[in-house]
Design brief:
Blueprint: H1 2-27, H2 31-44, H3 50-56, H4 63-84
Helix pairs in contact: 1-2, 1-4
Length: 86
């Protein structure tokens, strides 16, 4: 039973990491930045502000695109935490 728990734990950590990497890749955010956003959300239980997300983007989006990008990232963070942390 110890082997099964270890195997599942390894699998879960791998899936968690891959999911976070996919969010970072899809939204063109450095992996470290998305980790910080998720960590802050888990600690404060408050979603990051839109400006905090925009500041982490490598290129500032056009004004019309900004809201959609921020909403996608917030949704990705919420989904990630719902699946892997709670």
């Amino acid at each position: 039973s110890g082997d099964v728990e270890k195997a599942f734990s390894d699998f879960w950590e791998s899936e968690k990491s891959e999911s976070l990497k996919q969010i970072a890749k899809d939204e063109n955010i450095p992996f470290q930045n998305i980790q910080e956003l998720v960590g802050e959300y888990m600690y404060t239980q408050k979603l990051p502000r839109g400006q905090d997300i925009a500041d982490m983007l490598p290129e500032q989006p056009k004004l019309l695109e900004r809201k959609g990008i921020i909403e996608r990232i917030l949704s990705g963070i919420q989904n990630f935490v719902d699946v892997f942390e709670w």
